[in-house]
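User: Hi! I have a protein structure encoded as tokens and I'd like to know what sequence might fold into it. I'm fairly new to this, so please keep things simple.
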């Protein structure tokens, strides 16, 4: 931006301590107001930068707004008066106590712009958005968000989730951005409505049927029907919950009027008329397998493993393998199907189906999407290794499909960009059931940043154990009793 010497003319007037006091207004009031008159008194000369970098006197009686920025270096008064530009109110404050004449310079400037606001997810209690903005002369540095004309909150992220909302309510959302030079864009406004979920169920209805009835079209009530025609889906005819916070809570293992937090589970989806649940909170931090720390001699089982089996009421098995990332012999598999299983009475244990889990594992690939991981993990091209048990852990693809479907083309290695849209994300380092097939020491996990990665199965000897959330399938005859699926009003079953 060129700064050239220019001969200027102005009207001489006498001032004695003049201070223009600006009354604060909201951003919208400023943008809706009539532009401030500049030359009513004739003692200020307005200078505007031209395309060639020179400045010319403007005959306009209004301050420039879009396309110009105040130049506080060149703007000055000949006899020492101070000029202060208020960019929000578009006003000049002049402070002087002597005869003076003043020149106000504006440089050509391209403002930042909010191009679009995309609603990425809605639930009964929240609305998630993603903002597309572009810088002008300078790049965008901060985003400002407001809902229902409330106070603006600032963020460096172009995504925002508004929480604590009311169901079935339309909200006005406003966004503007600021660039590195402190210049604001104009405000862009949109609206979105929270879900107004009404459970289409009556007491005595089959639970799988009940969940399917919540689906009327793709995304309704955060449920997607994964048919072969649904782009980027598992194409396994499952019904899966996807999004920031769907109403998929179930109270399992307690009849208390207020379900204890430890008994809250969430529905991953419906698979062949079986409801798949996952514990909504961490059961505890454990190694996926803890046998690697003890080196056993040939044909002698691990002492550590034998102690573990006895402590959990299981007879020691001669010549059991000494650790590894093989699910069928892992200590966490044993713990989940003994110690954890025994926290339920026999009636509730009988509500859990013995299921065939795909546990062959797969290769890690930092470009794979949810669908690609599904195909190699449990789909048609997966390893045929299985394990028929009651309690397991989530699949990698379960985590992948839990995000809003707009992220299903994103690699799971980069899922930190989808945190606000993934109800399965707990914010912890957490195990999955899948082994890394090319490496006998590694198992797939979700890291605390929200991405899929790999961890040493005996992580207790490395950097602390990882979170474990038991997952299981309810028998297909499970009956719906009550509840709307929220954490405060979870689904109750017979």
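Assistant: Happy to help. Inverse folding works backwards from shape to sequence: for each of the 494 positions I chose a residue that suits the local structure. Here it is:
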């Amino acid at each position: 931006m060129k700064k050239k010497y220019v001969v200027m003319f102005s009207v001489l007037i006498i001032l004695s301590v003049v201070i223009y006091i600006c009354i604060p207004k909201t951003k919208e009031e400023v943008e809706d107001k009539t532009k401030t008159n500049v030359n009513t008194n004739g003692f200020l000369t307005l200078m505007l930068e031209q395309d060639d970098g020179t400045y010319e006197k403007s005959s306009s009686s209004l301050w420039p707004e879009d396309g110009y920025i105040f130049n506080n270096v060149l703007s000055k008064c000949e006899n020492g008066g101070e000029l202060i530009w208020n960019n929000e109110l578009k006003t000049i404050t002049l402070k002087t106590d002597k005869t003076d004449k003043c020149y106000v310079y504006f440089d050509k400037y391209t403002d930042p712009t909010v191009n679009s606001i995309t609603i990425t997810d809605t639930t009964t209690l929240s609305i998630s958005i993603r903002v597309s903005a572009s810088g002008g002369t300078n790049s965008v540095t901060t985003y400002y968000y407001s809902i229902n004309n409330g106070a603006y909150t600032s963020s460096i992220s172009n995504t925002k989730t508004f929480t604590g909302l009311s169901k079935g309510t339309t909200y006005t959302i406003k966004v503007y951005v600021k660039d590195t030079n402190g210049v604001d864009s104009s405000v862009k406004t949109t609206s979105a409505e929270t879900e107004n979920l009404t459970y289409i169920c009556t007491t005595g209805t089959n639970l799988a049927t009940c969940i399917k009835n919540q689906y009327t079209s793709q995304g309704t009530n955060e449920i997607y029907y994964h048919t072969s025609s649904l782009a980027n889906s598992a194409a396994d005819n499952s019904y899966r919950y996807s999004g920031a916070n769907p109403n998929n809570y179930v109270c399992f293992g307690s009849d208390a009027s207020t379900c204890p937090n430890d008994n809250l589970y969430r529905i991953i989806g419906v698979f062949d008329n079986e409801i798949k649940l996952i514990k909504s909170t961490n059961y505890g931090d454990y190694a996926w397998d803890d046998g690697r720390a003890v080196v056993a001699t040939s044909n002698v089982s691990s002492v550590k493993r034998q102690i573990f089996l006895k402590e959990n009421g299981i007879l020691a098995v001669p010549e059991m393998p000494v650790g590894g990332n093989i699910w069928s012999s892992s200590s966490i598999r044993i713990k989940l199907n003994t110690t954890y299983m025994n926290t339920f009475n026999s009636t509730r244990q009988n509500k859990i189906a013995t299921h065939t889990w795909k546990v062959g594992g797969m290769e890690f690939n930092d470009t794979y999407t949810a669908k690609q991981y599904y195909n190699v993990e449990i789909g048609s091209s997966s390893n045929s290794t299985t394990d028929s048990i009651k309690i397991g852990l989530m699949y990698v693809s379960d985590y992948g499909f839990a995000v809003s479907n707009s992220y299903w083309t994103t690699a799971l290695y980069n899922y930190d960009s989808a945190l606000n849209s993934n109800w399965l994300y707990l914010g912890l380092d957490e195990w999955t059931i899948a082994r890394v097939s090319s490496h006998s020491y590694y198992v797939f996990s979700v890291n605390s940043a929200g991405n899929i990665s790999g961890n040493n199965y005996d992580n207790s000897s490395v950097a602390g154990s990882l979170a474990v959330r038991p997952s299981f399938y309810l028998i297909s005859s499970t009956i719906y009793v009550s509840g709307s699926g929220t954490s405060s009003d979870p689904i109750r079953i017979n």
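A useful reference point when you look it over: The chain has seven helices and 29 strands. Feel free to ask if any position seems puzzling.
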